[in-house]
UniProtKB/TrEMBL annotation:
Reactions performed catalytically: hydrogencarbonate + H(+) = CO2 + H2O
Listed SMART domains: Carb_anhydrase
Stated family: Belongs to the alpha-carbonic anhydrase family.
Name of the protein this chain belongs to: Carbonic anhydrase
Protein backbone atom coordinates (compact mmCIF):
# COMPACT_ATOMS: atom_id res chain seq x y z
CA UNK A 1 0.00 0.00 0.00
CA UNK A 2 1.32 3.42 -0.85
CA UNK A 3 0.18 7.00 -0.93
CA UNK A 4 -0.87 7.30 2.68
CA UNK A 5 -1.01 11.04 3.21
CA UNK A 6 -2.42 13.22 5.90
CA UNK A 7 -4.54 15.90 4.23
CA UNK A 8 -7.92 15.20 2.70
CA UNK A 9 -11.20 17.02 2.29
CA UNK A 10 -12.64 18.39 5.51
CA UNK A 11 -15.99 16.76 5.08
CA UNK A 12 -14.42 13.31 5.31
CA UNK A 13 -14.34 13.69 9.04
CA UNK A 14 -18.08 13.66 9.22
CA UNK A 15 -18.79 10.83 6.82
CA UNK A 16 -19.70 8.22 9.32
CA UNK A 17 -19.67 4.64 8.12
CA UNK A 18 -23.18 3.26 8.26
CA UNK A 19 -23.37 0.17 10.36
CA UNK A 20 -25.29 -3.04 10.16
CA UNK A 21 -27.13 -1.98 13.28
CA UNK A 22 -28.13 1.29 11.66
CA UNK A 23 -29.18 -0.70 8.61
CA UNK A 24 -31.28 -3.10 10.65
CA UNK A 25 -33.04 -0.19 12.31
CA UNK A 26 -33.55 1.55 9.00
CA UNK A 27 -34.95 -1.62 7.53
CA UNK A 28 -37.33 -2.04 10.45
CA UNK A 29 -38.47 1.58 10.31
CA UNK A 30 -38.98 1.52 6.56
CA UNK A 31 -40.85 -1.77 6.74
CA UNK A 32 -43.01 -0.49 9.60
CA UNK A 33 -43.73 2.75 7.72
CA UNK A 34 -44.65 0.75 4.66
CA UNK A 35 -47.04 -1.50 6.54
CA UNK A 36 -48.58 1.42 8.46
CA UNK A 37 -49.04 3.38 5.24
CA UNK A 38 -50.65 0.38 3.56
CA UNK A 39 -53.03 -0.13 6.51
CA UNK A 40 -53.98 3.55 6.52
CA UNK A 41 -54.56 3.72 2.80
CA UNK A 42 -56.34 0.39 2.35
CA UNK A 43 -59.80 1.57 3.61
CA UNK A 44 -59.58 4.52 1.23
CA UNK A 45 -58.73 2.13 -1.61
CA UNK A 46 -61.78 -0.01 -0.79
CA UNK A 47 -63.99 3.11 -0.74
CA UNK A 48 -62.55 4.20 -4.03
CA UNK A 49 -63.21 0.80 -5.57
CA UNK A 50 -66.82 0.84 -4.36
CA UNK A 51 -67.42 4.35 -5.70
CA UNK A 52 -66.09 3.15 -9.01
CA UNK A 53 -65.09 6.44 -10.62
CA UNK A 54 -62.51 6.25 -13.38
CA UNK A 55 -60.18 8.55 -11.46
CA UNK A 56 -60.33 6.39 -8.33
CA UNK A 57 -59.90 3.19 -10.29
CA UNK A 58 -56.81 4.57 -11.95
CA UNK A 59 -55.55 5.81 -8.55
CA UNK A 60 -55.97 2.30 -7.18
CA UNK A 61 -54.31 0.71 -10.15
CA UNK A 62 -51.28 2.94 -9.71
CA UNK A 63 -51.12 3.11 -5.91
CA UNK A 64 -50.90 -0.62 -5.24
CA UNK A 65 -47.85 -1.22 -7.47
CA UNK A 66 -46.25 1.95 -6.06
CA UNK A 67 -46.79 0.77 -2.48
CA UNK A 68 -45.34 -2.62 -3.35
CA UNK A 69 -42.40 -0.94 -5.05
CA UNK A 70 -41.71 1.26 -2.00
CA UNK A 71 -41.75 -1.84 0.20
CA UNK A 72 -39.26 -3.70 -2.01
CA UNK A 73 -37.08 -0.59 -2.34
CA UNK A 74 -36.98 -0.18 1.44
CA UNK A 75 -35.56 -3.67 1.79
CA UNK A 76 -33.07 -3.11 -1.02
CA UNK A 77 -31.84 0.17 0.46
CA UNK A 78 -31.22 -1.38 3.85
CA UNK A 79 -29.78 -4.74 2.93
CA UNK A 80 -26.28 -3.92 1.53
CA UNK A 81 -25.06 -2.86 4.98
CA UNK A 82 -25.46 -6.36 6.33
CA UNK A 83 -22.25 -7.15 4.44
CA UNK A 84 -20.29 -5.66 7.36
CA UNK A 85 -21.74 -7.36 10.45
CA UNK A 86 -18.47 -7.14 12.36
CA UNK A 87 -18.97 -3.43 12.89
CA UNK A 88 -22.02 -4.11 15.00
CA UNK A 89 -19.89 -5.33 17.86
CA UNK A 90 -17.95 -2.12 17.85
CA UNK A 91 -21.11 -0.13 18.08
CA UNK A 92 -22.40 -2.18 20.97
CA UNK A 93 -19.11 -1.57 22.70
CA UNK A 94 -18.53 2.02 21.77
CA UNK A 95 -21.62 3.77 20.48
CA UNK A 96 -24.20 3.98 23.24
CA UNK A 97 -26.05 6.81 21.53
CA UNK A 98 -28.19 4.22 19.77
CA UNK A 99 -29.67 2.98 23.02
CA UNK A 100 -29.43 3.84 26.71
CA UNK A 101 -26.08 2.80 28.15
CA UNK A 102 -26.36 -0.81 29.27
CA UNK A 103 -23.15 -0.74 31.21
CA UNK A 104 -21.32 1.74 33.38
CA UNK A 105 -18.35 2.20 35.67
CA UNK A 106 -20.03 2.10 39.08
CA UNK A 107 -21.65 -0.66 41.14
CA UNK A 108 -23.11 -3.78 39.54
CA UNK A 109 -23.17 -2.08 36.13
CA UNK A 110 -19.45 -1.46 36.52
CA UNK A 111 -16.56 -3.58 35.19
CA UNK A 112 -16.85 -6.25 37.90
CA UNK A 113 -20.45 -6.90 36.90
CA UNK A 114 -20.27 -6.58 33.10
CA UNK A 115 -20.47 -10.33 32.45
CA UNK A 116 -23.67 -10.47 34.48
CA UNK A 117 -25.41 -7.85 32.33
CA UNK A 118 -25.64 -10.06 29.23
CA UNK A 119 -24.58 -13.56 28.12
CA UNK A 120 -22.78 -11.77 25.28
CA UNK A 121 -20.36 -10.30 27.83
CA UNK A 122 -19.00 -13.62 29.12
CA UNK A 123 -15.44 -12.87 27.98
CA UNK A 124 -15.34 -9.91 30.38
CA UNK A 125 -15.03 -12.38 33.26
CA UNK A 126 -13.55 -15.43 31.53
CA UNK A 127 -11.26 -14.16 28.76
CA UNK A 128 -7.52 -14.54 29.16
CA UNK A 129 -6.58 -11.82 26.67
CA UNK A 130 -8.34 -8.86 28.19
CA UNK A 131 -7.53 -5.15 28.05
CA UNK A 132 -6.34 -2.78 29.43
CA UNK A 133 -3.06 -4.04 30.84
CA UNK A 134 0.06 -2.76 32.49
CA UNK A 135 2.61 -2.13 29.72
CA UNK A 136 6.27 -2.75 30.40
CA UNK A 137 9.46 -4.04 28.78
CA UNK A 138 7.92 -7.50 28.33
CA UNK A 139 5.56 -6.03 25.72
CA UNK A 140 7.51 -5.55 22.51
CA UNK A 141 7.17 -2.97 19.73
CA UNK A 142 5.75 -3.70 16.27
CA UNK A 143 8.24 -4.65 13.57
CA UNK A 144 7.17 -1.62 11.57
CA UNK A 145 5.12 1.37 12.69
CA UNK A 146 1.69 1.91 11.10
CA UNK A 147 0.95 4.43 8.38
CA UNK A 148 -1.95 6.57 9.59
CA UNK A 149 -4.16 8.87 7.56
CA UNK A 150 -6.85 10.97 9.21
CA UNK A 151 -8.14 13.97 7.31
CA UNK A 152 -8.24 17.36 8.99
CA UNK A 153 -11.67 18.90 9.27
CA UNK A 154 -14.77 18.85 11.39
CA UNK A 155 -16.68 16.18 13.24
CA UNK A 156 -19.61 15.51 15.53
CA UNK A 157 -18.54 15.28 19.15
CA UNK A 158 -20.93 12.96 20.97
CA UNK A 159 -21.53 12.14 24.62
CA UNK A 160 -22.46 8.43 24.69
CA UNK A 161 -22.88 8.25 28.44
CA UNK A 162 -19.91 5.92 28.72
CA UNK A 163 -17.42 8.02 26.74
CA UNK A 164 -17.16 11.05 24.46
CA UNK A 165 -16.55 10.15 20.85
CA UNK A 166 -15.97 11.57 17.38
CA UNK A 167 -17.11 9.32 14.52
CA UNK A 168 -14.33 9.75 12.00
CA UNK A 169 -13.06 8.56 8.67
CA UNK A 170 -9.45 7.60 8.10
CA UNK A 171 -7.21 4.70 7.26
CA UNK A 172 -4.32 2.93 8.92
CA UNK A 173 -2.03 0.54 7.09
CA UNK A 174 -0.41 -1.94 9.45
CA UNK A 175 0.99 -5.46 9.17
CA UNK A 176 0.06 -5.77 5.51
CA UNK A 177 -3.57 -4.88 6.17
CA UNK A 178 -5.63 -1.76 5.63
CA UNK A 179 -7.85 -0.75 8.54
CA UNK A 180 -10.67 1.79 8.37
CA UNK A 181 -10.92 4.26 11.24
CA UNK A 182 -14.42 4.27 12.70
CA UNK A 183 -14.23 6.65 15.64
CA UNK A 184 -12.00 7.91 18.38
CA UNK A 185 -12.97 8.36 22.01
CA UNK A 186 -11.48 9.09 25.42
CA UNK A 187 -11.06 7.59 28.88
CA UNK A 188 -10.21 9.25 32.17
CA UNK A 189 -8.15 8.18 33.96
CA UNK A 190 -6.09 6.22 31.45
CA UNK A 191 -7.00 2.56 30.98
CA UNK A 192 -3.50 1.36 30.17
CA UNK A 193 -0.72 1.82 32.65
CA UNK A 194 2.92 2.17 31.65
CA UNK A 195 5.38 0.60 34.10
CA UNK A 196 2.50 0.60 36.61
CA UNK A 197 1.94 4.37 36.26
CA UNK A 198 -1.53 5.63 35.34
CA UNK A 199 -2.16 8.82 33.33
CA UNK A 200 -4.98 11.39 33.39
CA UNK A 201 -6.38 10.77 29.90
CA UNK A 202 -6.22 8.19 27.10
CA UNK A 203 -7.39 8.28 23.48
CA UNK A 204 -8.52 5.21 21.52
CA UNK A 205 -8.72 5.28 17.72
CA UNK A 206 -10.87 2.28 16.79
CA UNK A 207 -10.25 0.62 13.42
CA UNK A 208 -11.82 -2.25 11.50
CA UNK A 209 -10.47 -4.21 8.55
CA UNK A 210 -12.66 -6.31 6.31
CA UNK A 211 -13.35 -9.82 7.56
CA UNK A 212 -14.12 -11.38 10.90
CA UNK A 213 -10.81 -13.12 11.50
CA UNK A 214 -8.39 -12.63 14.37
CA UNK A 215 -6.66 -9.29 13.98
CA UNK A 216 -9.34 -7.62 11.89
CA UNK A 217 -9.70 -4.98 14.56
CA UNK A 218 -7.02 -2.49 15.55
CA UNK A 219 -6.95 0.20 18.22
CA UNK A 220 -4.32 2.93 18.27
CA UNK A 221 -4.00 4.26 21.82
CA UNK A 222 -2.03 6.99 23.53
CA UNK A 223 -2.01 8.31 27.06
CA UNK A 224 -1.67 11.99 27.98
CA UNK A 225 0.39 13.58 30.73
CA UNK A 226 -0.26 16.96 32.37
CA UNK A 227 2.32 19.57 31.39
CA UNK A 228 3.66 22.32 33.62
CA UNK A 229 4.18 24.74 30.72
CA UNK A 230 0.71 24.46 29.17
CA UNK A 231 1.83 22.34 26.21
CA UNK A 232 -1.02 20.39 24.64
CA UNK A 233 -2.23 18.87 21.37
CA UNK A 234 -4.43 20.80 18.98
CA UNK A 235 -6.95 17.95 18.73
CA UNK A 236 -7.61 17.63 22.46
CA UNK A 237 -7.58 21.36 23.23
CA UNK A 238 -10.05 22.03 20.37
CA UNK A 239 -12.40 19.35 21.68
CA UNK A 240 -11.92 20.52 25.28
CA UNK A 241 -13.16 24.00 24.41
CA UNK A 242 -16.45 22.50 23.16
CA UNK A 243 -16.98 19.63 25.57
CA UNK A 244 -19.18 21.66 27.95
CA UNK A 245 -21.83 21.63 25.18
CA UNK A 246 -22.19 17.85 25.47
CA UNK A 247 -22.26 17.57 29.25
CA UNK A 248 -25.54 15.64 29.05
CA UNK A 249 -25.35 12.01 27.82
CA UNK A 250 -26.99 11.66 24.42
CA UNK A 251 -26.04 15.16 23.27
CA UNK A 252 -23.66 16.11 20.49
CA UNK A 253 -22.11 19.18 18.93
CA UNK A 254 -20.22 19.87 15.74
CA UNK A 255 -16.58 20.80 16.20
CA UNK A 256 -14.56 22.47 13.45
CA UNK A 257 -10.82 22.78 12.95
CA UNK A 258 -9.85 19.31 14.13
CA UNK A 259 -6.26 18.40 13.28
CA UNK A 260 -4.78 15.09 14.36
CA UNK A 261 -1.24 15.66 13.08
CA UNK A 262 0.54 15.55 16.44
CA UNK A 263 -1.19 12.34 17.48
CA UNK A 264 -0.70 10.70 14.07
CA UNK A 265 3.01 11.52 14.25
CA UNK A 266 3.39 9.64 17.53
CA UNK A 267 1.98 6.45 16.00
CA UNK A 268 4.05 6.73 12.84
CA UNK A 269 7.38 7.89 14.20
CA UNK A 270 7.80 6.90 17.84
CA UNK A 271 8.08 3.67 19.78
CA UNK A 272 4.91 1.70 20.38
CA UNK A 273 3.83 -1.28 22.41
CA UNK A 274 2.01 -4.02 20.49
CA UNK A 275 -0.10 -6.76 22.03
CA UNK A 276 -3.25 -8.81 21.42
CA UNK A 277 -6.05 -7.87 23.78
CA UNK A 278 -9.74 -7.06 23.91
CA UNK A 279 -12.27 -4.27 23.78
CA UNK A 280 -12.15 -2.51 27.16
CA UNK A 281 -15.95 -2.29 27.19
CA UNK A 282 -18.64 -4.98 26.88
CA UNK A 283 -18.73 -7.41 25.18
CA UNK A 284 -14.94 -7.47 25.82
CA UNK A 285 -14.32 -9.18 22.44
CA UNK A 286 -10.78 -10.49 22.05
CA UNK A 287 -8.40 -10.66 19.09
CA UNK A 288 -7.92 -6.88 19.05
CA UNK A 289 -4.52 -5.58 17.97
CA UNK A 290 -3.42 -2.84 20.34
CA UNK A 291 -0.72 -0.34 19.41
CA UNK A 292 -0.04 1.95 22.36
CA UNK A 293 2.37 4.88 22.21
CA UNK A 294 5.18 4.42 24.73
CA UNK A 295 5.58 8.15 25.39
CA UNK A 296 2.65 10.21 26.70
CA UNK A 297 1.26 13.13 24.73
CA UNK A 298 1.14 16.59 26.37
CA UNK A 299 -2.08 17.80 28.03
CA UNK A 300 -2.74 21.23 29.56
CA UNK A 301 -4.54 21.45 32.89
CA UNK A 302 -7.57 23.32 31.51
CA UNK A 303 -8.26 20.69 28.84
CA UNK A 304 -7.89 17.90 31.36
CA UNK A 305 -10.34 19.47 33.80
CA UNK A 306 -12.85 20.14 31.01
CA UNK A 307 -12.71 16.49 29.91
CA UNK A 308 -12.91 15.15 33.46
CA UNK A 309 -16.01 17.20 34.30
CA UNK A 310 -17.92 15.50 31.47
CA UNK A 311 -16.27 12.05 31.33
CA UNK A 312 -16.17 11.79 35.14
CA UNK A 313 -14.71 8.25 35.37
CA UNK A 314 -14.72 5.67 32.56
CA UNK A 315 -11.72 3.43 33.01
CA UNK A 316 -11.76 -0.36 33.28
CA UNK A 317 -9.42 -1.79 35.91
CA UNK A 318 -6.06 -3.24 34.81
CA UNK A 319 -6.41 -6.81 33.54
CA UNK A 320 -4.11 -9.77 34.05
CA UNK A 321 -1.00 -10.33 31.93
CA UNK A 322 -2.11 -11.43 28.42
CA UNK A 323 -2.57 -15.21 28.30
CA UNK A 324 -3.04 -15.62 32.05
CA UNK A 325 -6.33 -16.44 33.73
CA UNK A 326 -9.01 -13.76 33.98
CA UNK A 327 -8.78 -11.94 37.33
CA UNK A 328 -12.50 -12.40 38.05
CA UNK A 329 -12.12 -16.17 37.59
CA UNK A 330 -9.12 -16.14 39.89
CA UNK A 331 -10.98 -14.07 42.50
CA UNK A 332 -14.09 -16.29 42.28
CA UNK A 333 -12.00 -19.40 42.90
CA UNK A 334 -10.65 -17.79 46.06
CA UNK A 335 -14.05 -17.04 47.62
CA UNK A 336 -14.62 -18.79 50.96
CA UNK A 337 -16.61 -22.02 50.43
ZN1 LIG B 1 -11.82 2.92 24.65
Amino acid sequence: MRGVTHNMAASYYNRRTKTSRDAARLKLILTKQCVITAIRISPAIVVHLKRGSNFNRSLTMYSLPILFGVFIASLAVASPETDIPSQQEFLIANDESLSPAHFGYTGVKGPIGWAGLSPNNALCSTGSWQSPINLNASIGPPAVNPKVRIPDGYGDFENLGTTVEVPAVGQTYFGGKLYQLQQFHFHTPSEHRINEEYFPLEIHLVHQASGECHGSRLVLAAVFEITTNGATTQLVSTLARQIHKIAVPGSKTRVYGLRGGEIISVFQNYRLYQYYGSLTTPPCSEGIIWLVAQAPLPLDVGSYLAFKRVLKFNSRYTQNTPGLENLIKVAASQLPK
